[in-house]
Amino acid sequence: MFDFITTWIAAGGAFAVAALMFIENVFPPIPSELVMPLAGYNAARGLSSPLLIFLGGVVGSVAGAWLWYEIGRRLGPERLTEWVDRHGRWLTLDRHSIEQALDWFDRHGAAAVFFGRMIPTIRTLISVPAGLQGMPLGRFLIYTTAGSMIWVGALFGAGYLLESQYERVQSWLNPVTNGIIVAIVGLYLWRVFRGKGRRKRTG
Questions:
Q1: Contact partners, residue 81, CB within 8 Å, separation at least 6
Q2: Which end of the chain is more exposed for a tag (fewer CB within 10 A), N or C?
Q3: What is the residue-level pLDDT of the chain in tens, covering all 203 positions?
Q4: Where on the phi/psi map is residue 144: left (φ > 0), alpha (ψ -120 to 50), or beta?
Q5: DSSP of 58-126, one letter per residue?
Q6: What is the DSSP letter of 201?
C-alpha cells in the first residue's frame, strides 16, 4: 500500500495530493496523517516538487473545510441536524458531534477555526459551526488556511525527513502502512455498522 500511494502521488503530483486532502476532509477513512507524510517522502526523493506538493495539500485541505462551511451556512442548525440524523451514519457523525463543535466554536470563536485545523476529528467538524454562525467567509478562509498550513507543513516535513532514513525503514514501512489503513477502514466500518449517526427512536 505504501508503494501504491507513493506511486499514485508521484504520478499525479500536486493534483493527486490536493484531491486526497480534499477527500480526507469529507470522507473519514482517508487520513491526512498518512497522505502528507507519504507526499513529503516522495518530494524528498525528487519525484515531485516540494513546494507544489505542499501547496496542493493546503489547497485540498482548505477546499474540504470550505465545503463543510458551506453545508453549515446553507442548511442552518435545524436542517443540518435533520440531515445528520438521516445521513450522518456514513460520515460517522451524530448530533453530539455537531453540538460539541458548536460549543467549541462558541467558546473560542476564530481561534477555534485556527487551532481546530490541527486537531484530528475536530479539524473537519469545526468548519460546520463557522458556517452555521455566519462567520464571514474571508475571515474563515484566512484562519483555516493558516491552521492548515501548519498542520500540512508538519506532516509534510515529517515525511520529507523520513527519506534520509529510507535504508533503515524500507523493510517495515510498507506493512506498517498497510496496518494503519486496515485499522482506519476497520474503525470506520465498525462505527458505521454500530449505527453512529442514526436517529434515535423514541417511544
A1: 95, 98
A2: C
A3: 566 677 778 788 899 999 989 988 876 556 777 788 888 888 888 878 899 999 999 999 999 999 989 988 887 777 777 777 766 665 656 666 777 767 777 777 788 889 888 877 677 778 888 888 888 999 999 999 999 999 999 989 888 887 766 545 555 555 655 565 566 566 555 655 665 444 444 44
A4: alpha
A5: HHHHHHHHHHHHHHHHHHHHHHHHHHHHHHGGGGT--HHHHHHHHHHHHHHTHHHHHHHTTSTTHHHHT
A6: P
